[in-house]
Every structure is written in structure tokens, then in C-alpha cells.
Write a structure and sequence with these properties.
Keywords: Membrane, Transmembrane, Transmembrane helix. With about 190 residues, the protein is mainly alpha-helical. Helices cover about 80% and strands about 0% of the residues. The chain has six helices and no strands. The chain is elongated. The model has no long low-confidence stretch (mean pLDDT about 85).
């Protein structure tokens, strides 16, 4: 029969195990959601591009079609920000698991020779990780803020700058927000912590 310390240790172990399971479940759900945002972005950008440039049923002049293109940066901003926030949460869960939860497991009696949550450290230490992260950041930047900037340039070219004050203010706001999204993606990339 276990003594009181062994029983408390078992309760702590079960509690930590449950916390680990819940965190990994949330992390997995966020990864799926984040990754699907890339597909949603590509599909919505393609649909907008097709509608704005190739739909001959629109009986409008180029400047009106160009205004439709100004929706592209908003797609990039909203989905890019959501992508980046989810990526940040995924990273924070991983860091908490690796730095905090692992320490709590290691403090439990009887786990001295047991390697606790080793995968949380090992999978982040492979060769080429830095290069892979640079490629991922490039993809994230192209999928979100650079794609939004592409739509801005296309809108300006198609409209011949015939936007009026509202369109000009919208373009300035979109440029500022696209820069913020790009900065958020870069700052939360984790390059400085690896």
C-alpha cells in the first residue's frame, strides 16, 4: 500500500499528465486551424482575383473593378493576423511544456532516471531547423502581407490612381496594417530563441 508521499506524488503525476494532454490537444487543434488558414487565404485571393480581373459579366470600368481588388489586403491582414496569433499560441504552449511542465514532472519522486517529455526538446534540436524556419517565415510573408501588397499594386495599376480620397485613405491604412502583420510574423517567428 502506498504511503502518503507516494500517493501525493501519484496525484501530482496524474494532474501534470492531464495538463499535458489538454495542452497538446489545444496545440494540435491550433496547428490544424493555423495551417488551414493558408488554404483559405489562397482560395479567397484566387476568387477575388478571378472576380476582379476576369469576370466579364461586370459592367463596370477598371477603376470600379480596382476597388474590388482593395479587398485583397483586408483578406491578407485579417487571415495573416489570425495565422500569426495562432502560431504564437502554438509556440507558447510548446515553450511552457518544455520549460515549465517538464520541470514539474522532473521534481516528482521516482522519476530520476525517466526522461520526461524528451520529444519536446529533441524535435527542436535537429540540423537545418534554422533554415527551415527561414523558409517558413518567407512562405508566411508571401502568403499574407506580400500577397496583400500585390493586390494593392494591382489595384493602383488598374485604377490609374482614380480612387478619390476614400480609396487613398484606404490604401494608406492597408499599407500600415500590412506592415504590422509582417512585423508580427517576423517578431513571433522564434528565430531569436533557437
Amino acid at each position: 500500500m502506498p504511503n502518503e508521499n507516494e500517493y501525493k506524488n501519484w496525484i501530482r503525476f496524474e494532474s501534470l499528465s492531464r495538463e499535458y494532454q489538454v495542452l497538446k490537444s489545444e496545440q494540435s487543434a491550433r496547428i490544424g486551424f493555423r495551417d488551414n488558414l493558408l488554404y483559405v487565404t489562397l482560395a479567397s485571393m484566387g476568387a477575388l482575383l478571378g472576380f476582379s480581373l476576369f469576370d466579364n459579366s461586370l459592367d463596370s470600368k477598371d477603376s470600379e473593378r480596382a476597388l474590388c481588388l482593395l479587398a485583397g489586403p483586408w483578406i491578407s491582414i485579417i487571415l495573416g493576423w489570425t495565422y500569426s496569433i495562432n502560431d504564437r499560441a502554438i509556440t507558447r504552449i510548446a515553450r511552457y511544456t518544455e520549460n515549465q511542465l517538464k520541470k514539474h514532472f522532473e521534481r516528482l519522486e521516482g522519476l530520476d532516471s525517466f526522461s520526461v517529455l524528451e520529444w519536446e526538446t529533441i524535435h527542436r534540436s535537429y540540423k537545418g531547423r534554422f533554415a527551415r524556419k527561414l523558409i517558413q517565415i518567407s512562405i508566411d510573408l508571401f502568403a499574407f502581407p506580400f500577397a496583400g501588397a500585390f493586390f494593392l499594386v494591382l489595384a493602383i495599376q488598374k485604377s490609374k490612381m482614380d480612387f478619390g480620397n476614400f480609396g487613398l485613405c484606404l490604401i494608406i491604412l492597408e499599407v500600415i496594417l500590412l506592415i504590422l502583420v509582417a512585423g508580427h510574423i517576423i517578431l513571433n517567428s522564434g528565430l531569436n530563441s533557437d
